[in-house]
Amino acid sequence: MSYDNVMEYKLVPTEIFPILRGCSGCGGMQVHTCKKNFRINANGNRLDVWLIYGCAKCGHTYNLPIYERIDKNRLPAAEYRKFLENDAAAVFRYGTDKTILRKSRVRIAWEQTDYELVRQAENRGDMAAEETKTFIKLKNPFGFPVREDKIASEILSVSRGKAKELLKKELLVVSIVKEDTFNGRDT
After folding, report:
1. What is the pLDDT of residue 41?
2. What is the pLDDT, as a whole number, of residue 129?
3. Which of 92, 111, 130 is the last residue of a domain?
4. Is the domain of 105 the same as that of 39?
5. Quick check: is 49 in a domain?
6. 41 and 54 in a common domain
């Protein structure tokens, strides 16, 4: 099928993923947000590295394991320095790494996670034409649970009802590509 408009976007998080886990401070499942700090503990030649989260309700902290009992010689000096300095890019990278979150058996609080749509490519024809056919390819490497009509509404700046109508008439096609760079299933 030929399309008048072809757009390619990527969904990226704007913040570190908040997580859902049982809180030992207030009891029950609670949202925990990242404190943007690492904690490092040394025991002989072994290191433990954690990313610190806090309960949104009571503030009780949780240490998300990044490395456990790793030989200090196996950890690159540059990465160790980033942990010591609480490097913002390293905090973001580990706080959005679904493999680490999955390994620690925590869930991502998707409903409290913000994202942005980053334009990768766009070829727009006459959007005002009556029967304009549009194809949107959405790269979703982090696995955000999104709906086609919501994404189309945001990209095309139309109401969700209008986006649903275009999808139903097949004047709009939204293809969501997960691009799983995390080598595992979704969290």
Report:
1. 96
2. 53
3. 111
4. yes
5. yes
6. yes
Mean pLDDT of 59-81: 95
CA distance 163 to 171: 10
Q: Taking residues 148-161, report their average pLDDT.
A: 93
29 and 102 fall within a common domain: yes
95-116: pLDDT as tens digits: 999 999 999 999 999 999 999 9
Cα 124 to Cα 28, 110, 131, 142, 169: the distances in Å are 49, 31, 14, 27, 19
What is the pTM assigned to this prediction? Answer: 0.81
Residues 161 and 84 reside in one and the same domain: no
User: Which residues lie closer than 8 Å to 73 by C-beta, 6 or more apart?
Assistant: 45
The radius of gyration of the chain from alpha carbons, rounded to an integer in Å, stands at 21
pLDDT in tens, 24-60: 888 889 999 999 999 999 998 999 999 999 999 999 9
Confirm whether 182 is domain-assigned. Answer: no
Residues in the chain: 187
What type of residue sits at position 116? Answer: E
Q: Where are the alpha helices (DSSP H) in 62-159?
A: 77-84, 88-95, 98-103, 148-156
Q: How many domains does the chain have?
A: 2
Q: What span, in angstroms and rounded, lies between the C-alpha atoms of 185 and 179?
A: 11
